[in-house]
Amino acid sequence: MNYFLAHSKPHTEAILTQFQWLRAEGFLCDVILEVDGTIFPAHRALLACSSDYFKAMFKDYTKESKAKVIRLQEVTARGLQLVLDFIYTSWLSLSMETIEETLLAATYLQVIEAIRLCGKYLISHLNLGNCCFSANVAYMFYLADTLASIEKFILHHLWRLLEFDLDTIGLLELNADSMLFVVISEDIPNVKELSLLTLILEWLDYDKTRCQYSSRLLSRVRYGLIPLADLTALFYEYEVLQTPPVKSLVWSAMDYHNAAHMQPVMQSLQTTPRNLKEEIILVGGETDNNEFVTDIFAYNTNKKKWRSATQVKEKVRNHCVCVIGNFLYVLGGEIAVSEENNRENTVTVVTDAVYRYDPRFNKWMEPARMLERRTQFSCCVLQDRIFAAGGQDENEQLHSSVEAYDINADEWRKITDLPHKMHGHASVVCNNVMYLSGGKYAGQLNHTSKDMYSYNALGGHWIKRAPMTIARFGHQMAAVDQTIFAFLGMYEPFCDIEKYDPIQNQWIRLKPLRYDRFCYGMAVLGETIYLIGGKKWQDSQQVPTQNIIAYDISGDTWEEISSLPIPLYGVQCDRLQFSELTDL
């Protein structure tokens, strides 16, 4: 025998409709619920089907199973009315004014679907004015998923909440767990650490019973990111900052601020901004009008967007840049200065100046100058020391000297000279060894070198390695996954690149570029090497370029991915982390 099952949705809905009619008429009601003198006739069967609380209560062995009137002590009459209406109609009337009473009745009576709808309502009706209240409600009634969503909203909009009066907006009434969630988060856009510390101090001061949370909250503040003057003032104003666990953090931050030149090697979680995103930066160089570049541009590789991060301290070309502890160093090169007799005219001079940029405070400082004026030289970082090698001085004389910058002492010291006086060479660090290649030597300025040398800080001397397969001048090198890559230099007849295996001491040719390119900037992110801007030959002329091409080392492939805001050449590139800004 065959059977066919037919389902009627209207019948299901009609059952609830009829139960609601029975309740309204008081017909077949077999129990009365009473709250604060207000009575609610109801039907045991529907209550038991909708509420785990009533299902357990109406078992045969309970006292309430035979009772005609059940008095509820933990809920309000309005909250019970709203939940009963939901049980009988499947419609739940919600508002911010009644949400607490509704949740109190729904959780007490264990009406699970009503609880879910309350949580959904809190999320869908979030705004700046009610988010802190909503977080407290979700926390009070253990709505974990709802609370997590609300806390993310508060984090993302904290910078806007701080623009209001803290008491009016509800931040000072925020529950302790949510406040701790905010403080430990790595993702708080557009909020300075000083503002976060001020919020915590006012939150603690708002309710004196919160002192039990002071150590947990204040130990999460990154005091190294708070300006020294502000930190000192708050330290003496608030006794809670002078308690032993917190006091040591504040003192360490003060020591950090007072050792300005040593900060790149003193970095820790306490001095690292939240919400950091790494970007490629372009420093110095010239435009297609042969004008020096003023802005330092930052490129977000994920969004493929450029922005002006700051401005250079000195307009410069043929310089070097490097990064230590997320501080940018700009070294040497040629700067534009006004003539003494005619201030409107500028000339370029070779400099020994060094500038350091701190992206956290958008602040420049000038460490010790190099021992030599250098242009068309190379620099790299080895064991937290900056090495500047070779180059040309203001009299166009080539250097063989190499100097190293000791950050702790703020001092440059000479080390072992290069085997030759040279300029236009490239250098890179791989496996704690510095490698230097190519360039032109003194007395051989019409001859470009293929030579490769290595320098180990422990050995303290230069060792000749296998030469490149192509002589290169003004080229670039990069190290990725224990392999060194050499890219195009100036006036190369072909667009070949090659890689070097330090263990095998061997060079291998790779897929060439489709276009010639020189005087470009280069940066490495992961397994991708970016060549940015530069010049190319067009109709027998050097023409600045605007495109950015990326080389994927795993696939040995090239791809054009983006363009510069303007054509640039002679730029120097590196990676720097900035606190990510949201769209304000």
How would you state the average pLDDT, rounded? 90
What structural class results from the helix and strand content?
Answer: alpha+beta
Q: Alpha-carbon distance between the termini?
A: 69 Å
CATH topology of the largest domain: Neuraminidase
Radius of gyration: 35 Å
In the predicted model, the low-confidence regions spanning at least 5 consecutive residues are none
Shape: elongated
Number of strands: 36
Characterize the main sheet. Answer: 4 strands, antiparallel
In order across it, which strands form the biggest sheet?
7-6-4-36
- The fraction of residues in strands falls at 25-35%
Helix count from the secondary structure assignment = 14
Helix content: 25-40%
* Integer count of domains: 2
* Overall CATH class of the largest domain: Mainly Beta
How is this structure best described in words?
The chain has 584 residues and is of the alpha+beta class. It folds into two domains: 1-125, Potassium Channel Kv1.1, Chain A, CATH 3.30.710.10; 276-579, Neuraminidase (6 Propeller), CATH 2.120.10. The protein contains 14 helices and 36 strands. A hairpin with a 2-residue loop joins β20 (426-430) and β21. The longest helix has 18 residues, at 144-161.
